[in-house]
């Protein structure tokens, strides 16, 4: 079975970790043991992953060195983390495969994802990224006075007031339309290469005439994973997060896991506000889209990856 595996941030950086290279390497090593189980059972893998914490740390580094080196735009920071996390995955997965006597090449493709430059998301940026700023710090860094409202626009950057009177940058989260390297990714997969791609939702780019240019945005990684599943003609999307299944009434006394959902039922629950936009919502939406096109989608935890794909764990999304 050809499977797109979408790794959540916990597969690369555990909660509470400082984010050192060694911490991330150890976490990725553990994740790759589970992924190798899938390869051993004969599955053909395409891997994608989150990058939010890593981009946030690069933004903190840029803030600290603001008077020493020029800051890089968000699209290039996304590409940078694709390469960094991709090489961690390809190295550790390659090590695990060889340890089990499996010869499979693993390659990272730094991936551009096409968005519409006129997507309505650009008029209402709402995706928080990077560090929190005090009002005094942001005034010093930007040489502008704080506004009276909740939004603070500095050049092309927009900051929103959050808890505790702090400010945080918000960016657009447009819909992914196409993956520019899809043909290359399909060729690699067809040649038996385990491919790591579209990390963090991919580097967002837009067309200006026939030329591509990066845009400062963050594409939801689960939306891109659903698009990737279609473009590589995968049989399944496996979304691995920090819970073993999707749950109704999460955090309430009535909380219970869901074994199976149809796309229609999933969309009704989304419309009813059952799954928050900042956590399970995008995963459920992506899984519903994949199932509606006739493939299988499963949401579960990394520890249950093999069982989830075999139908013994997680929440399975299938069309009626």
Which SSEs are present, and which pair or pack?
Blueprint: E1 2-7, H1 21-40, E2 44-49, H2 52-64, H3 74-99, E3 106-109, E4 112-114, E5 127-133, H4 135-142, E6 151-154, E7 157-161, E8 167-171, E9 178-179, H5 182-190, E10 194-197, E11 203-208, E12 211-214, H6 221-231, E13 236-241, E14 247-248, E15 256-257, E16 260-261, H7 263-271, H8 281-292, E17 296-301, H9 305-309, E18 315-317
Parallel strand pairs: 1-2, 1-13, 2-10, 3-10, 4-11, 13-17, 16-18
Antiparallel strand pairs: 4-9, 5-8, 6-7, 7-8, 11-12, 14-15, 17-18
Characterization of this structure:
This protein is an alpha/beta fold and 320 residues long. The protein has 2 domains: 2-124 and 172-234, Carbamate kinase; 237-320, Carbamate kinase, CATH 3.40.1160. The chain has 9 helices and 18 strands. It has helices spanning 21-40, 52-64, 74-99, 135-142, 182-190, 221-231, 263-271, 281-292, 305-309; strands at 2-7, 44-49, 106-109, 112-114, 127-133, 151-154, 157-161, 167-171, 178-179, 194-197, 203-208, 211-214, 236-241, 247-248, 256-257, 260-261, 296-301, 315-317. The protein is globular.
Question: Helix coverage percent of residues?
Answer: 25-40%
Number of strands: 18
Radius of gyration: 20 Å
CATH class of the largest domain: Alpha Beta
Biggest sheet: strand arrangement: 3-10-2-1-13-17-18-16
Distance between the termini: 21 Å
Percent in strands? 15-25%
Order of helices and strands: EHEHHEEEHEEEEHEEEHEEEEHHEHE
Q: What is the domain tally? A: 2
**What is the second-level CATH architecture of the largest domain?**
3-Layer(aba) Sandwich
Largest sheet: 8 strands, mixed
Structural class by SSE content: alpha/beta
Average pLDDT, rounded to a whole number, is: 92
Would you identify the CATH H-level superfamily of the largest domain?
Acetylglutamate kinase-like
Using the alpha-carbon principal axes, give the shape: globular
Low-pLDDT residue spans? none
